[in-house]
Amino acid sequence: MVDIFTREVAYKFVKFGAVGFSGVFVDFGFTYICKEWLKIQKYVSNAIGFTIAASSNYYLNRIWTFHSNNPEIAVEYGRFLLISLIGLLINTLVLWALVSKAKFNFYFAKLLAIGVVTIWNFVVNLNYTFVA
């Protein structure tokens, strides 16, 4: 397991956060389009937005955050998507709990859920997907 309390890892986390921040716009944009314009159920819309953002985040993290040269892109992408899908499950559970049980606004709850999942995604991708 990678020591996460180093300057190098902190720098990667900042870059991961920047990529993730761009993903928030992709995620929210597609979620909004699906939910509000296409009238797709809100949790399905959330899954669509999250999955599209995960794919763009993979590409940016591969080339910029982790500088991966792994020639097995399909395997690496598969790992990233697996972690993202687990993250989606965590995201959806947090979102459901905050909206259904705590009565938070859907989009505010979504923002909080993204924060929780960001930590999960970084630590697991650092130690599993983009292992040097």
UniProtKB/TrEMBL annotation:
<keyword id="KW-0472">Membrane</keyword>
<comment type="similarity">
    <text>Belongs to the GtrA family.</text>
</comment>
<feature type="transmembrane region" description="Helical">
    <location>
        <begin position="13"/>
        <end position="34"/>
    </location>
</feature>
<feature type="transmembrane region" description="Helical">
    <location>
        <begin position="80"/>
        <end position="99"/>
    </location>
</feature>
<dbReference type="GO" id="GO:0005886">
    <property type="term" value="C:plasma membrane"/>
</dbReference>
<keyword id="KW-1133">Transmembrane helix</keyword>
<keyword id="KW-0812">Transmembrane</keyword>
<dbReference type="InterPro" id="IPR007267">
    <property type="entry name" value="GtrA_DPMS_TM"/>
</dbReference>
<feature type="transmembrane region" description="Helical">
    <location>
        <begin position="43"/>
        <end position="60"/>
    </location>
</feature>
<dbReference type="InterPro" id="IPR051401">
    <property type="entry name" value="GtrA_CellWall_Glycosyl"/>
</dbReference>
<feature type="domain" description="GtrA/DPMS transmembrane">
    <location>
        <begin position="15"/>
        <end position="130"/>
    </location>
</feature>
<feature type="transmembrane region" description="Helical">
    <location>
        <begin position="111"/>
        <end position="131"/>
    </location>
</feature>
<protein>
    <recommendedName>
        <fullName>GtrA/DPMS transmembrane domain-containing protein</fullName>
    </recommendedName>
</protein>
<dbReference type="GO" id="GO:0000271">
    <property type="term" value="P:polysaccharide biosynthetic process"/>
</dbReference>
<dbReference type="Pfam" id="PF04138">
    <property type="entry name" value="GtrA_DPMS_TM"/>
</dbReference>
